[in-house]
Amino acid sequence: MTEFLSFAVNGLVLGLIFAVVALGFTLILGVMQVINFTHGILFAFGAYFAFTLQKFVGFWWALIIAPIFVGLIGLVLERLVIHRTYGGNPLFGLLLTFGLATALEEVIRMVWGKTGYSVAAPRFAAGSLDLGFMFYSKYRLLLAALTIIIILLVWLFLEKTPYGAIIKAGASDSEMVMALGKNLPRMRTFVFAIGSILAGVAGVIAAPIWSVRPTMGTFILMPAFVIVVLGGIGSFWGSVIAGLIVGMSTSISVMFWPRISDIIPYVLMGIILLFRPRGLMGEKSVLEV
Amino acid sequence: MEKKLGKKISRRTFLKGAVAGTALLGPGIPYIAKKAVAAEPLYIGVVSPASGNYADHGMMERMGMQMAVAEIKTVLDRPVKTLVEDDETDPQVGARKARRLIEVDKVKFMMGGVSSSVAVSVSEVAQRAGVLYIETNQNSDTLTGEKAHRCCFRVPSDMAMALKCLGPYIIEHVGKKWYFFTHDYEWGWSGTRWGRKVLEKYGGTEVGESKVPLNTRDFSAFLLKARAAKPDALVITVGGIDRAALMEQTYEFGIYKEMTIVHTLYDYEDVWAAGPEKNFGIHGTEWFYGIDTPTVKEFVAKYKKMFPAALIPVPTQDTANGYIAMRELLRAIQRVGKEDVTAVIKALEGHTIPVTESLKNDPIYIREWDHQFVWAYYVVRSKKPAEMKDRADFFELLKWVPGKDIARTKEENPIKLEPYPS
Amino acid sequence: MASRNRWSKWISNPMWVVFIIFALFPYIPYIGRYISLGTEVILWSLFALGFNILLGYTGLPSFGHGAFFGIGAYAAGIFFLRVYKGLWIPLMMSILITGFFTALVGLLVAKKRGIYFALITIAVSQIFYFIAFRWEELTGGETGLSGIDRVNISFPNLFSIKLSTPINYYYFVLVIFILCTLFIWKIVHSPFGKVLQAIRENEIRAKYLGYNTTAYKWGAFTISGFFAGLAGGLYTLLINSAFPFVLDWTQSGNVVMMTLLGGGTVNFFGPILGAAIFIVSRDLLSTYWESWMLIYGLIFVFVILFIPSGILGLIGGKKQTILR
Question: Between B15, B22, B214, which is nearest C142 by CB?
Answer without folding.
Answer: B214
